[in-house]
Structure to design on (316 residues):
């Protein structure tokens, strides 16, 4: 749920009026170490609390209705870049994702490659992100940012997202995490994943669920070989992995029906550790005013709920 960059990152934030045009300049702001994982190419401030960012999505797997990872990565990167570059959140601070909502309208006219597909033609799609930000201050500094995103592609419906981020100083984070602030990276068992088609994915390397003997429950599978979800070592399971687990669990719960979530609400209440089992469960539920199918997904560790998601979608 939280992330921070290494001490080698630039120590100061850019002014809101500056447009950074090169992706190499944005790497530290996005907390990414692998350059090809960076989707956002530049940003600019349009006015108080209003920003525009540009991104490039690879053509392969660029349909967010079938696979929302590009959309969620773009939201994450946009939020981090604006927080650090425009609002001066120190790069040493941890970013905590409290809540996330996103909506993907239908239909998506260009389905592109199968979900999770790698490779492709090498072509990319231009993406524009319109971002509105409402800051909350604590002790004279930015303590949290509420963000609203509009993600636009030529010829495709506009996707929308909302997120709330909190920021924690290194000292406060050490108090919060204690001995859990240090972890032996990748030193945990990785069980075999479920069938990719059951999770709505194409590549078995992208599956984050493992069978645990129950028909509607799974174990979270943290395979650091997926360097998109695990770009760099951290001390707890990244929020992006938990988002992916919710999406895959909803699809797996309704399989062989092909389920496509179009609206998702998520809340994060505690950290998920790497060295203890995290149980992912999914159950359909009825929402009176929601068309289509609804699925509630929870992630629990040591008997305590860590993440909750409600997904609303359609069947193909």
């Amino acid at each position: 749920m939280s992330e921070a960059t290494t001490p080698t990152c630039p120590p100061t934030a850019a002014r809101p009026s500056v447009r950074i045009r090169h992706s190499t300049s944005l790497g530290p702001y996005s907390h990414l170490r692998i350059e090809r994982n960076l989707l956002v190419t530049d940003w600019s401030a349009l006015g108080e609390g209003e920003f525009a960012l540009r991104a490039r999505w690879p053509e392969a797997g660029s349909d967010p209705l079938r696979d929302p990872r590009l959309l969620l990565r773009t939201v994450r990167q946009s939020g981090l870049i604006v927080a650090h570059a425009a609002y001066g959140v120190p790069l040493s601070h941890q970013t905590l994702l409290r809540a996330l909502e996103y909506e993907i309208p239908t239909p998506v006219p260009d389905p592109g490659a199968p979900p999770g597909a790698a490779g492709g033609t090498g072509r990319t799609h231009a993406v524009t992100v319109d971002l509105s930000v409402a800051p909350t201050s604590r002790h004279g500094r930015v303590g949290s940012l509420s963000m609203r995103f509009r993600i636009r592609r030529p010829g495709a419906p506009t996707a929308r997202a909302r997120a709330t981020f909190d920021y924690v100083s290194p000292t406060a984070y050490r108090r919060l995490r204690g001995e859990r602030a240090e972890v032996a990276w990748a030193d945990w068992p990785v069980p075999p994943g479920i069938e990719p088609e059951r999770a709505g994915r194409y590549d078995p390397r992208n599956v984050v669920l493992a069978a645990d003997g129950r028909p509607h429950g799974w174990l979270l599978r943290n395979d650091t070989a997926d360097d998109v979800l695990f770009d760099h070592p951290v001390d707890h399971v990244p929020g992006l992995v938990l988002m992916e687990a919710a999406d895959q669990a909803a699809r797996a719960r309704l399989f062989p029906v092909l389920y496509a979530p179009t609206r998702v609400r998520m809340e994060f209440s505690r950290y998920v550790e790497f060295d203890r089992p995290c149980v992912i469960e999914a159950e359909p539920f009825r929402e009176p005013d929601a068309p289509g199918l609804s699925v509630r997904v929870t992630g629990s560790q040591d008997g305590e709920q860590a993440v909750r998601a409600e997904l609303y979608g359609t069947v193909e």
